[in-house]
Amino acid sequence: MFMPQFDGYASIGERAPLASLADEIWSAIAYCGFAEDLELSVVESAGVFFLEGKAPNQAVADRILQVGRRCAGPIVLSRISIG
After folding, report:
1. What's the sign of the alpha-carbon dihedral 12, 17, 51, 32?
2. Are the beta carbons of 49 and 72 closer than 8 angstroms?
3. Is the dihedral of CA 56, 6, 70, 78 positive or negative?
4. How far apart are CA 29 and CA 36, in angstroms?
5. How is 21-81 classified by DSSP, letter by letter?
6. What is the pTM of this model?
7. pLDDT tens digit string along 26-77?
8. Burial of 35 by CB count in 10 Å (0-12 exposed, 13-18 middle, 19+ buried)?
9. What is the CB neighbour count within 10 angstroms for residue 22?
């Protein structure tokens, strides 16, 4: 299950673009074809997006990060654990 999450620090004007980008990242990962059964979330903090959750191996974690970075570039970082 995927769920975008946001911290409480963005103002109303900043929040909409960040929420939209988090949704785009989340959707791209959800429909990429290799992450359907994984529990992952996209968490935004201070304009940086963190991918959190668990992947079965490093190759899958790397592919998920690549998909996220195609949407938003280097402001997407991984906190995905392996196991």
Report:
1. positive
2. yes
3. negative
4. 8
5. HHHHHHHHHHTSSS-TT--EEEEEETTEEEEEEEESSHHHHHHHHHHHHHHHGGGEEEEEE
6. 0.77
7. 889 988 888 878 889 999 998 899 999 999 999 999 999 999 999 999 999 9
8. buried
9. 22
